[in-house]
Amino acid sequence: MRLTQALSPISLAIALATLSGVVYSVYFQAANVARGTPQSTSQGLGEQRLTPQQVYPVRSDIVAIEIHTGHVIRGKQQRFQRQFGDYITPHRHATKDDWVKRFGRARGALVGHDRKQFYGFDRLTGKDLNISNWRNSENIRIQSSDDPRYRSAQSVKSVHRKMRPRDTAQIDTWKFQWATTHTLYLTLPTALTPGKTYTITSPDPNVAPITFRYQPTTNRSEAVQVSHLGFRPDDPGKVAFLSAWMGDGGGVNYPIGQTFWLVNSQGKQVFTGKTRRSRRADEAEDGRGLNHNHTDVDVMDFSDFQQPGQYRVCVATIGCSFPFKIGPQVWQSAFYTSVRGLYHQRSGIALGAPYTSYKRPRAFHPNDGVKVYQATARLVDNDQGIWGKTSFLKLLPQTKTTKILPQAWGGYFDAGDWDRRIQHVEVSRSLIELAELFPDYFERLNLNLPESNNQLPDIIDEALWNLDFYRRMQAADGGISGGIQSASYPKTGEASWQETADILAYKPDPWSSYLYVAGAAQIAHWLRDRQPKLAATYRLSAVRAMDYAERYWHKPDPSHKHFQLRDARNLAALAMLRLTEQTKWHQVFEATTVFTKRDIPIEKWDFHDQRDAAFLYLRLPAHLTQAKLRQNVHESFFKAADKIIRSGQKSAHKWAKEDDNAPIGWGNSLGSPKTVTLLRAHHLSQDDRYLKAATLASQFSAGANPLNLVYTTGLGHRSPRNPLIIDQRITGQAPPPGITVYGPLNPAFFKNDWFTKLMEPAMYPAWSKWPTTEAYFDVFTSVAMSEFTVMQTIGPTAYTWGYLAARQSPNR
């Protein structure tokens, strides 16, 4: 479900509906935690003790122990067998869940039109950590057989900890239990000696003694962070980071100027540098005056190193990063996975071999008996559009008609539910733009799509999959529907191909039509000399939609003065100008642009957003533009890009913001890089300042962060396992690759996030104490963190990695 404005709170309804004794030795070397495979105890393990997930050095005198507790056994769909005492709740909730209760206690929900499938609740199994046994540092002892300083067991000096939820088990209609990750930080009386072996014991009966070997030249440490994706040899910004936040122990202080190395796959040191302070814990990182790390962060720069190979960043006395590659294909591989996240979000098609290992039956297709009904409600008028304050749950179902739209299939699912809405056209436009900027590169790139054998580049096929959905629904008068939405949020346990709610199509409106025109005119222009027949189809469709929107945009209703309608008209007029070269469209552009005056920002929250129009105007032939206006646009565009550079320079991990004052969360979070304007500025100027800033800004979301997590599924050594994808959750599969989640949530701004309050029993310290850069919990139902949209997260991520892959190498 996409938020029209990134800061708008999501309806609680989406969450309600979608919730559906031996001594153990561990040597914390690089292979120790290769992919973070959970080792939690689970059902049937009897008295087996908890197994540490990993043990790693934080500093020469601090050791961290990470322990996973709890294992979620997910509910499954199965044939419903009615038993004595069962009672079926008849649509008691607005979401129409059909709960099955036995002697008053809920067992699960019925699924599907025939109500013959049953979806049971989850279960949580496994032991827990006895935290009370870890609170007294005198009870935690460390001993070594080969380090004389620890020949006799000694108590550690202090124990600090943090705990985060790792997964959720819905055990009743509104009850949850949590699988968790505990990280214990032990400050030692004396620094460890490299090459020596140590054993830590505690009075916790659930955790056996832990034996490890300290070898910082090979140990992996969570304190050392680098992009999992790697770097192209000619990337102008290659960095890694050093930082640690110990929960109730606060930040770790590291001396500035420590030695670090790049170590190749044979263990040879190939580059040496010194750490420098990126940002102190008391320094603000954005326009809101906040520090998002709660600890000092040091940076390690190896930008001049260009030799292809596989490497780790290692810091003296501390440890090493995950392995990463330097090579010519790193961004192409990342782009391939990311853009195929769109394929995995396709509606109206079955997913499976030979195109993907992720399996999903065809959903929302008329050949399967699915009916889409025309409604008289407009998208623009409800809470899914730009103006309406009324929930679509109230407005849309009551305007259902008997008219069936047999061609209303296709498009992209948004995220946690099944809507396909006009805002998704933004994704198609970004893909076409990449093809415009780098035609030769994307002409050759095979994305393994069902359309890969046709005469079009795969990136264009993906863009057309989405655009064609709206074109097929175009009304006789040329108007474009805002898309399709079910009359309620998904029922508990019900997958996309089992939807039982009414499926409704919005009535066309000018705003939706303008947004469509911007994409349809763009693809018609791209196709003009390549496939004239298809180009003519989209040209005619764009003209008809534009004519409709121009007839009705000024209709006196609450939406006609809204800035988003003006911005949509502005961009559509510009797309029509490029397509037709008719001067009347420049007149419409002039009437709606903010750039008639100098020094106007290309985007201002809640006033205008003309970033896309500005870039397009600067790419138009000079004879289609007005010189003074073009100069104003140029000045504003590059001022915006320079501002984003400064934003990245202030942040410790070099992420950047389009709006320096925007809070981090939802569509403004760090799961996807904020680099589009920087990359566009690079295209226009070929100035490496913008390319370097964009490369640096892309690294946090690629794994160079305190969680050592790539925020796109299927990439790197760690990525989200529990994004808010109902089909994945119900079928029990690994998530489809290429899904970029929202990411961290700023506790200072989102202090009242409703689901965070539910997670409080599984969280320590309290929510308000967490740094933003660690405030991401990989939990299916943590909507503000684990949800996503195709245009807010997947699209910008694919654009960034696609640009970095396709750009030409500089002449050096």
Automatic annotation (TrEMBL):
GO terms for biological process: polysaccharide catabolic process. This is Glycoside hydrolase family 9 protein. Belongs to the glycosyl hydrolase 9 (cellulase E) family. GO terms for molecular function: cellulase activity. Residues 221-317 form the Cellulase Ig-like domain. The keyword Hydrolase applies. Residues 273-292 are annotated as: Disordered. Pfam families: CelD_N, Glyco_hydro_9. It comes from the Bacteria. Transmembrane segments: none annotated. CDD domains: E_set_Cellulase_N (cd02850). Residues 280-292 have a biased composition (Basic and acidic residues).
